[in-house]
């Protein structure tokens, strides 16, 4: 018969073995997240006018239109964003500069707690402002910052630590090297939730049969050209598909094993680093693989650092603060405990087989999830896309020439480019175009061509003004059963200049008479 003392001892042992994080791992995590914040700004900066200002394509009115149609009519209740306060370009630039500054301060470890909170606010604000250009990696970055607010990220390799030592005289021998708390438990559970929910979304026939990678590698808007070589090895694609299911649905749970937990952590880290390295080599999905690399850093166990540094040290646990700080610490830990439950509930509610519609989730839970920005959904390629696309921004100028508005200086072509990935200049535009191929977002395509016509006319003389333009979307089916690509064409938008003298019907006839490659419709 198990006594209460033995039960408490087992619970305490399980808690420490599974949820302890090393302070050096958290320091490496802090530096990596700081760099990611800077790289995120660098990646989005060229498209600030188009995607984050009212002078561009995706205005604040589009934000309201997107969330009202795709999320919920009452999306504004509990949802917030600093970018929605003003619509001018200068305001967006200021907020992104502040994000880069926060990233630099996190790398240095200066005022870390305050800076992490500020960075979380800025990242959440940017994601609400640009929902069509974010990926699952952006959701992960948001959650990394959220839990980072409650973790001691500055206790190693930081300016804060140097200042703390000088002021309070703490010696290295007195400073513990590990932390276990509700915040550390929340981080571990969040990692398990991310990958298991991604794997659960893949429990369908396409992945079971090992055919999923055929669809993924035909998504030319994100796949690098050399990724097509993998299609010559169907057996390897099956192994990759089944291996993905295994690590996401089975292996990830061993992070919660009290038996040889450090060993299982390293097995998971090596497996997922190999997995995300493959994504990095084969696909271009913004910062997604780099964010996932950083995600695993806090889970590097104490044994890893002992082997790397060659030190034999007793693993001490960082004790809760005393004095007035305990009045902040314990409410924060209780809040983390509640947020763990909310994160798990929210992700489970996204399981398709449960059929939990948004209307059935209590309004108070939805309000809290929106306000804390923990509303998340992870299902990367759960249902692989069966259509791939490329785009042509065709325009006839005032001097009679025809150009590609999206790629100035390139010859206007309607055949599929050798690399769809390289035909679209930035990750932001690639993600935007891919999302807009969904028919339920068709209304948001309207201003896309108008914006590119405006940009062209602003940078060219009167003789080269656009008189007529059309945005073409070419779609073709993918997958192992599509050896011959069946291509169809959709014209998303037609734009006519108010100064145009010829009728649109005549322009259509002239386009038909011109020599263009034929596509089956």
Low-confidence stretches: 513-521
Q: How many individual helices?
A: 21
Secondary structure: number of strands: 6
Number of domains: 2
| Quaternary structure classification | single chain
Q: What is the gyration radius calculated from CA atoms?
A: 26 Å
Alpha carbon gap, first and last residue? 74 Å
Sequence of strands across the biggest β-sheet: 4-3-5-6
If you average the pLDDT, what whole number results? Answer: 87
Structural class determined from secondary elements: alpha+beta
Order of helices and strands: HEHHHHHHHEHHHHHHHHHEEHHHEEH
Question: Could you characterize the architecture of this molecule?
Answer:
- By secondary structure, the protein is an alpha+beta fold.
- The chain folds into two domains: 14-372, no CATH class; 387-513, no CATH class.
- Helix content is 52%, strand content 8%.
- It contains 21 helices and six strands.
- It has helices spanning 4-19, 23-44, 48-52, 60-71, 89-108, 112-129, 136-148, 159-168, 182-200, 205-208, 212-216, 234-249, 261-282, 288-295, 302-309, 326-349, 363-372, 420-423, 427-436, 446-458, 504-513, and strands spanning 21-22, 178-179, 387-397, 402-404, 466-477, 487-496.
- The strands form two sheets. A four-stranded antiparallel β-sheet has the order 4-3-5-6, covered by helices on one side. The chain has a two-stranded antiparallel ribbon with strand order 1-2.
- The longest helix has 24 residues, at 326-349.
- The protein is globular.
- It starts with a helix and ends in an 8-residue tail after the last helix.
- The relative contact order is 0.12.
- Residues 513-521 have low confidence and may be disordered.
């Amino acid at each position: 018969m198990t006594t209460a003392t033995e039960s408490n001892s087992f619970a305490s042992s399980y808690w420490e073995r599974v949820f302890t994080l090393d302070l050096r791992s958290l320091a490496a995590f802090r530096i990596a997240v700081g760099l990611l914040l800077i790289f995120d700004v660098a990646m989005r900066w060229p498209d600030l006018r188009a995607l984050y200002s009212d002078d561009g394509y995706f205005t604040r009115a589009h934000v309201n239109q997107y969330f009202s149609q795709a999320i919920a009519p009452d999306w504004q209740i509990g949802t917030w964003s600093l970018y929605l306060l003003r619509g001018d370009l200068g305001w967006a630039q200021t907020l992104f500069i502040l994000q880069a500054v926060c990233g630099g301060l996190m790398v240095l470890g200066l005022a870390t707690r305050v800076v992490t909170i500020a960075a979380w606010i800025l990242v959440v604000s940017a994601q609400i402002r640009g929902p069509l250009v974010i990926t699952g990696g952006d959701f992960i970055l948001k959650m990394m910052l959220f839990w980072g607010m409650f973790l001691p990220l500055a206790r190693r390799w930081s300016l804060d630590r140097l200042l703390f030592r000088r002021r309070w005289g703490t010696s290295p021998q007195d400073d513990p090297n590990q932390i276990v708390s509700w915040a550390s438990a929340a981080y571990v559970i969040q990692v398990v939730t991310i990958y298991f929910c991604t794997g659960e979304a893949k429990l369908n026939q396409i992945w079971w049969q090992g055919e999923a990678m055929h669809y993924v590698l035909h998504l030319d808007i994100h796949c690098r050209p050399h990724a097509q070589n993998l299609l010559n090895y169907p057996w390897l694609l099956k192994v990759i598909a089944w291996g993905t299911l295994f690590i996401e649905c089975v292996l990830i749970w061993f992070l919660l094993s009290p038996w040889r937990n450090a060993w299982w952590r390293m097995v998971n880290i090596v497996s997922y680093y190999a997995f995300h390295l493959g994504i990095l080599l084969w696909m271009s999905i913004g910062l997604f693989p780099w964010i996932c690399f950083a995600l695993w850093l806090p889970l590097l166990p104490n044994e890893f650092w002992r082997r790397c540094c060659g030190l034999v040290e007793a693993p001490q646990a960082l004790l809760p603060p005393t004095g007035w700080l305990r009045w902040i610490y314990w409410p924060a830990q209780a809040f983390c405990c509640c947020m763990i439950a909310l994160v798990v509930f929210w992700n489970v509610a996204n399981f398709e087989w449960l059929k939990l519609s948004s209307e059935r989730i209590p309004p108070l839970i939805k309000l809290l999830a929106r306000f804390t920005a923990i509303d998340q959904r992870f299902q990367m390629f759960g249902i692989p896309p069966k259509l791939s696309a490329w785009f042509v921004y065709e325009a006839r100028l005032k001097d009679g020439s025809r150009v590609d508005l999206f790629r100035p200086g390139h010859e206007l072509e309607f055949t599929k480019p050798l690399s769809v990935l390289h035909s679209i200049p930035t990750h932001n535009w690639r993600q935007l175009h891919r999302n807009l191929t969904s028919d339920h977002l068709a209304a948001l395509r309207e201003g896309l061509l108008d914006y590119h016509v405006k940009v062209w006319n602003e940078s060219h003389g009167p003789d080269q003004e656009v008189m007529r333009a059309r945005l073409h979307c070419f779609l073709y089916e993918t997958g192992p059963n599509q050896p011959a690509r069946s291509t169809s064409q959709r014209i998303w938008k037609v734009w006519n200049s108010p100064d145009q003298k010829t009728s649109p019907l005549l322009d259509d006839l002239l386009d038909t008479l011109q020599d263009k490659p034929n596509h089956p419709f």
